[in-house]
Amino acid sequence: MSGTTSTGKVMTAEDVAATLRDGMTVGIGGWGSRRKPMALVRAVLRAGVRDLTVVSCGGPDVGLLCAAGLVRRVVAPFVTLDSVPLEPHFRAARQSGAVAFTEYDEGMFLFGLLAAAHRLPFLPTRAGLGSDVLRVNPELRTVRSPYGEGEELVAVPALSLDVALVHVDRADPRGNGRYLGPDPYLDDLYAKAAARCYLSCERLVPPGEPAGPPQTLLISRMHIAGVVEAPGGGHFTDCSPDRGRDEAFQRHYARAAAAGGEEWAAFAARFLGGDEAVYQEEVRRWHEERARPVKEGV
Amino acid sequence: MTATRAEVCVAACAEAWRGDGEVLAAAMGVCSVLGARLARMTFAPDLLTTDGGALLTAAPIPYGAPPGPVEGWLPFRDHLWLVLNGRRHVMMGASQIDRHGNTNISAIGPWARPRSQLLGSRGAPGNTICCPTSYWIPRHSTRVFVPEVDMASGVGTDRAAALGPRAARFHDLRRVVTDLAVLDLGGPGGTMRLLSVHPGVTVDEVVAATGFPLAIGPGGVPETPEPGEEELRLIRDVLDPGGAREAEVPG
């Protein structure tokens, strides 16, 4: 037996962030405010790497990275917090012209990842034809079908990634990842489209444990460079069935992000100023403070 | 029983799926979601509906309720494949819509540096060019019904025509339901036409809330039918006992 030792590919979020370089293209799994690798994103914020191209079905991952000034370009079909429709930091970044935007249709985005995952230069699709997605992405080309009547289709270029960050419910030290929620999103495609993919998980388990339907084994170790155990690592996004979205905290985030200025600075200082343990502890305290009955004046 | 405006809207949204057969009724917005489920419970029993997520429910469920028994699985990636496959009729929202049914959910103002960044194009380009598409717009106003959209996320009839009959053969804009009226793209040259006004709304009000000329059919503009007793019972007691529809379309 060679290769995987008992610790296998286990590393810390800081280790992952330290592998990023300025100017890299980074794919981030999940969808909107659902199963985002937030602990890894928070580590990237602390590492302060710059000029990133972020490829994502965007949520607070995109917002936080934009707010920290680490992003040169966003490649996405949308950026949303789902229960809060618009992402305040992404809006601010776009409206101030701080980030460039490659705006794709969702189906185009899927095909871009599929192309990269299969080492194809592009995949053809009807999605995008006739829309302004072609106007705002003048580098996009169409192809003519060599069959039939020679239909013209959009040639979606491969969305090849330097690094991908993905969060799942369970993983083993070798890098196999299991999802327990209702939707795999596009997470395995990010892993396959990337030169290196790092996986964080709610809980690290021995290979094959706990037993579950084999089709929930979404991520294969052949595509994974490192594994991080990060309980609550998807917070505040939806990580069902273990943890639903922390809606109260997401509203708190969205309010502070929309307010900007001192209010955002206070949020960032409290929650993002320390490491992941500090973050989790401050979130716990924040909920405790809210639960405490407000004392009325005498 | 007198239907509220929201309940008229739910029934008008439901009508969008009449005759569609065994396809996915994909819906966005409260009245649209309720309309899809109402259609399935009444005149369109073959429709497929979701829990709002990846699950196709065995029966239509109340708004915001857990899925209950499930008959199918449609995670986002398969949903996107289904767009290309075509067995789907989506009713989307729009922040702007123009006379030819081009829609914008992306950004207001110049795209390069927008005044207001919205969602992004999401699935609108693919939806409109690949499968039947309707719209549910809870606030009919000149802010939404504009002469020209700032960014065409969803493809309208003029752009589809410009692509030619081959490329646009699956383009199929059906109806536009708002809090005031029901419209379609059946006017001259694929322009928007007023089909009916909701009870209590005048044609003049709709015209004033629309930022471009509306075509009007030769027979004039009838009133949007109100839901019947059984439909009202289903909306109130079964599908939306919490009254989410009334928050979307107040009184």
TrEMBL record, chain A:
GO terms for molecular function: glutaconate CoA-transferase activity. It comes from the Bacteria. Its EC number is 2.8.3.12. Coiled coil: none annotated. The keyword Signal does not apply. Signal peptide: none annotated. Pfam families: CoA_trans. It is an enzyme of class 2 (transferase). Belongs to the 3-oxoacid CoA-transferase subunit B family. This is Glutaconate CoA-transferase subunit A. It comes from Thermocatellispora tengchongensis.
From TrEMBL, chain B:
Keywords: Transferase. GO terms for molecular function: CoA-transferase activity. InterPro entries: CoA_trans_fam_I, NagB/RpiA_transferase-like. Pfam families: CoA_trans. Belongs to the 3-oxoacid CoA-transferase subunit B family. This is Acyl CoA:acetate/3-ketoacid CoA transferase beta subunit. It comes from Thermocatellispora tengchongensis.
